[in-house]
Amino acid sequence: MSSPAVRPLPPRRIPFVPRSPAFWFLAPAVLALAAIGVYPMLVALYNSFHHYNLTDLASGTPFVGLDNYIATLTDPSFWGALGRTLAFLLLTLPIELGLGLFAALLLHRQALPRVRAIARVSLVIPMATTYAVVGLIGRLVFNRQFGIANYLLGLFGVPPLDWLGDPTLAFVSVMIMDIWQWTPFCALILLAGLSMVPREVEEAARLETPRWSMIFWHQQRPYLLPGITAILILRSADMLKMFDAVFTMTRGGPGTATEFISIYIQRVGFRIFDQGMASAQAVLLLVLTIVLSRLYIRYVYREA
């Protein structure tokens, strides 16, 4: 009699380890996000409820509850920095959005594909420039002695201006550099939205009415609203945490003219060394960013 065939045992599966290839493709990104984003946020949240001063580590980090938040909300300097940041956002973001929309409409009406390709590549250059380099460029452009800004004004007979020494002009100079860097981003996002409009619909609308404002409002605007929402969310978050370009360009000065909220938090955390207070301020800034994002989605994106 022949011996019965021995059936091989199925391979042992390690518990809690998924076999899906998608899991292994996503795992590195999830781990990087947890290490870079989630863990520091949890540490900041923990520190915000504790007394944590780098100059007084001998006393430990005792739990203080909401004391850091109360001290932050009653700090006039915090509200001053937040007010300057919101003023910068309210003044700069509409200009970037308006100029970006104007550039997107011009490129959308341009029929030559080579011109559009060159324009798109040119728009990427400011976006690819790092914040610190933008700040250094700003220091050179608005230098009182040899900056190109005063040179151009001199062609019209305007005397040299102390751009980085005057509080108002320093604020305006930071606005100009931010507009230069991020208007192309708005233009590219809005151009992508315009490219989604069916060509047949635009041609039919042009036959019915010659008014471009009617075509824009009824045919193109619905396709632009998702992009506008994305621009509002991303640029608002960037402006609220804007640090590198401003610190490199003005160091927050003169005085506190360009001391935005991120620079103030850095000063509290790494010059006064009060990590607990700085963490509470960072958490409040995160809450403000989330609230603004929800408002944008509710009142802008819902119209799409």
What labels describe this entry?
304 residues; mainly alpha; MetI-like fold; 0% strand; globular; transport
Task: Write up this protein.
This protein is an all-alpha fold. The chain has one domain (45-303): Orthogonal Bundle (MetI-like fold), CATH 1.10.3720.10. Helices cover 69% and strands 0% of the residues. It is built from twelve helices and no strands. The protein has helices at residues 21-48, 67-73, 76-109, 113-128, 131-141, 148-154, 167-194, 199-208, 212-240, 244-249, 261-270, 275-299. Helix 11 (261-270) runs antiparallel to helix 12. The chain is globular. The model has no long low-confidence stretch (mean pLDDT 88).
Short description:
Belongs to the binding-protein-dependent transport system permease family. The chain is an all-alpha fold and 304 residues long. It has helices at 21-48, 67-73, 76-109, 113-128, 131-141, 148-154, 167-194, 199-208, 212-240, 244-249, 261-270, 275-299.
